[in-house]
Amino acid sequence: MESNSKTIVWFRRDLRIEDNPALAAAGRNGSILPVFLWCPKEEGQFYPGRVSRWWLKQSLIHLEQSLKSLGAELVFIKAQSTLSALLECVDAVGATKVVYNHLYDPVSLVRDHNIKQKLGELGISVQSYNGDLLNEPWEVYNDDGKVFTTFDAYWEKSLRMQNETVSHLPPWRLTQAAGSVKMCSIQELGLENELEKSSNALLGKGWAPGWSNADKALTEFVENNLLAYSKDRLRVGGNSTSLLSPYLHFGEISVRKVFNSVRLKQILWTKEGNYVGDESANLYLRAIGLREYSRYICFNFPFTHERSLLNNLKFFPWNVDQAHFKAWRQGRTGYPLVDAGMRELWATGWVHNKIRVIVSSFFVKFLLLPWQWGMKYFWDTLLDADLESDIIGWQYISGSLPDGHELERLDNPEVQGFNYDPEGEYVRHWLPELARMPAEWIHHPWDAPLTVLKAAGVELGMNYPSPIIDVDVARDRLMQAIFIMREKEAAVNAADANGTVEVVFDNSENVGDSANPKDVVKGKVPCPSSSSYDQRVPSMGNVYMNKKRSKPEEERKKLKDNGLNCKNEGKISNMDGDLCSTAESSSMKKQMTTSRNSFSVPRAISMSYDRKTFGDEASSDEKLQKE
């Protein structure tokens, strides 16, 4: 080891001292310069929302204090270019090495790969580590060396690979690298503006960001709430889940620690014959597995932030209706459970896993709005906004994954209301205009007698909206849209001798060339690395083949015989490829361009949040679940 070496430790979404492999490696090997770089320009359309930035700021303050107690000062830099800022840090302290922990979203993959190449060309050693996952995405393949595209098969293989994990002990002392670096205060990063501070102050009453607080939250969950997780996790309202997802997103706690803590508890319960505890632990570990799987899919199919994994949805006639999109965002759809969920999301930046599934399904199946719009809105508003998890959740709901919801499935919010909020307490809390509605009618007030509505002070269409669309009409529209999609798909496939297979392309420039599809296979990576721990990049130009889930011909004929034709086809936009993959507000349209060498990202969304109007499927719905 070179005790005189100087290393730049580049913090991103690994804001912790404990079990941080990049920090641990650098701390053992000379002096360090811990750096957090904030480059809004490079965040592009995935610039974090208000509540997510609030969490990030609080977590950074916590990390700064922890590093200072160990003898190192966290350097904050607001930059136009991450690469340029890193080079300035290297020059300022005479560093010979840069270390960081991996990220797996498509934007970070491109940026990190380019930075590693440029630094390497300049003779600067770059080392990256796995600080976010149990297994790297390039480590898990099926017996043929191919990528998994169903969760159960992936998770079974991942669990078999779980060897005894190495936890990186926190350094007891750090040495700050000498040198003068142009830095700013955390306030000058601009993570929070003056207009946001009053709203953000409320968040601090319910949440405590920071890596040491993450440890406390884990202990509280494992010791007091994990046992009842199998029973309580579907109860909307209240804290029936672990609430660890924001801590995991920002890397304030390692997934290894969470997994091992739950697994140890499970082993103890199994020995005791506690089958309820064993089931709870299994279900929670699946939730962890889904987080792993989200990174696995996004790494191996880096176009999934803008296009469906299954190619058939490119023919779906999405209904690009800004008025419906606004009604959904504001919780004004006329379906109480959906509206309650959306108002809670806006008010708190948080919503229960089950509610996420319900509002997402309504968005896609009832309103036929493009799933990319909903995914982007979740990114903008969730406290635990996590791009990879949101991608896989929305694709799952939209029937875009081989093991996802069937596109034909349409869940009735009224039925779901009685299933998950039988007394209506959750709805009453977030919809004060329905506070006096009896439980019998609260999930379908449009059916209530006028005397009941009058006694409850409810005027449908006035102080609470009538349903934006009838359930039966929504079902007919969905089936009609599916019929149109399959007709278009069949027409395209008719000209293709191999039209009975579903082809999933990556997002390279020759994406349209499907003449010779290939499986994504385990292979050599084009990016040179200095260690087996280093970040890899997905192989460009590969495609994946998977059998379609299509209806039999007799079903298509039945749909046609029932008269499901597209009378409003002219009013519905066919959103192909990169479509209008995110919504644009009427007040501002922001264009974004990308390099030829980067994955394309949709245009940025600029929401106009007008808030003047108001102050079973458990196991299959896990894809939207936050830990």
TrEMBL record:
<feature type="binding site">
    <location>
        <begin position="241"/>
        <end position="245"/>
    </location>
    <ligand>
        <name>FAD</name>
    </ligand>
</feature>
<dbReference type="GO" id="GO:0032922">
    <property type="term" value="P:circadian regulation of gene expression"/>
</dbReference>
<dbReference type="GO" id="GO:0009882">
    <property type="term" value="F:blue light photoreceptor activity"/>
</dbReference>
<feature type="domain" description="Photolyase/cryptochrome alpha/beta">
    <location>
        <begin position="5"/>
        <end position="134"/>
    </location>
</feature>
<dbReference type="GO" id="GO:0006139">
    <property type="term" value="P:nucleobase-containing compound metabolic process"/>
</dbReference>
<feature type="binding site">
    <location>
        <position position="284"/>
    </location>
    <ligand>
        <name>FAD</name>
    </ligand>
</feature>
<dbReference type="GO" id="GO:0006950">
    <property type="term" value="P:response to stress"/>
</dbReference>
<feature type="site" description="Electron transfer via tryptophanyl radical">
    <location>
        <position position="318"/>
    </location>
</feature>
<keyword id="KW-0157">Chromophore</keyword>
<dbReference type="GO" id="GO:0043153">
    <property type="term" value="P:entrainment of circadian clock by photoperiod"/>
</dbReference>
<dbReference type="Pfam" id="PF00875">
    <property type="entry name" value="DNA_photolyase"/>
</dbReference>
<dbReference type="GO" id="GO:0071949">
    <property type="term" value="F:FAD binding"/>
</dbReference>
<dbReference type="GO" id="GO:0003677">
    <property type="term" value="F:DNA binding"/>
</dbReference>
<dbReference type="InterPro" id="IPR018394">
    <property type="entry name" value="DNA_photolyase_1_CS_C"/>
</dbReference>
<keyword id="KW-0274">FAD</keyword>
<feature type="compositionally biased region" description="Polar residues">
    <location>
        <begin position="582"/>
        <end position="599"/>
    </location>
</feature>
<comment type="similarity">
    <text>Belongs to the DNA photolyase class-1 family.</text>
</comment>
<dbReference type="InterPro" id="IPR005101">
    <property type="entry name" value="Cryptochr/Photolyase_FAD-bd"/>
</dbReference>
<dbReference type="GO" id="GO:0003904">
    <property type="term" value="F:deoxyribodipyrimidine photo-lyase activity"/>
</dbReference>
<dbReference type="InterPro" id="IPR036155">
    <property type="entry name" value="Crypto/Photolyase_N_sf"/>
</dbReference>
<dbReference type="GO" id="GO:0005634">
    <property type="term" value="C:nucleus"/>
</dbReference>
<feature type="region of interest" description="Disordered">
    <location>
        <begin position="546"/>
        <end position="599"/>
    </location>
</feature>
<dbReference type="Pfam" id="PF03441">
    <property type="entry name" value="FAD_binding_7"/>
</dbReference>
<dbReference type="InterPro" id="IPR014729">
    <property type="entry name" value="Rossmann-like_a/b/a_fold"/>
</dbReference>
<dbReference type="InterPro" id="IPR006050">
    <property type="entry name" value="DNA_photolyase_N"/>
</dbReference>
<keyword id="KW-0285">Flavoprotein</keyword>
<protein>
    <recommendedName>
        <fullName>Photolyase/cryptochrome alpha/beta domain-containing protein</fullName>
    </recommendedName>
</protein>
<feature type="binding site">
    <location>
        <begin position="384"/>
        <end position="386"/>
    </location>
    <ligand>
        <name>FAD</name>
    </ligand>
</feature>
<dbReference type="GO" id="GO:0005737">
    <property type="term" value="C:cytoplasm"/>
</dbReference>
<dbReference type="InterPro" id="IPR014134">
    <property type="entry name" value="Cryptochrome_pln"/>
</dbReference>
<feature type="binding site">
    <location>
        <position position="229"/>
    </location>
    <ligand>
        <name>FAD</name>
    </ligand>
</feature>
<dbReference type="InterPro" id="IPR036134">
    <property type="entry name" value="Crypto/Photolyase_FAD-like_sf"/>
</dbReference>
<feature type="site" description="Electron transfer via tryptophanyl radical">
    <location>
        <position position="394"/>
    </location>
</feature>
<feature type="site" description="Electron transfer via tryptophanyl radical">
    <location>
        <position position="371"/>
    </location>
</feature>
<dbReference type="InterPro" id="IPR002081">
    <property type="entry name" value="Cryptochrome/DNA_photolyase_1"/>
</dbReference>
<feature type="compositionally biased region" description="Basic and acidic residues">
    <location>
        <begin position="551"/>
        <end position="561"/>
    </location>
</feature>
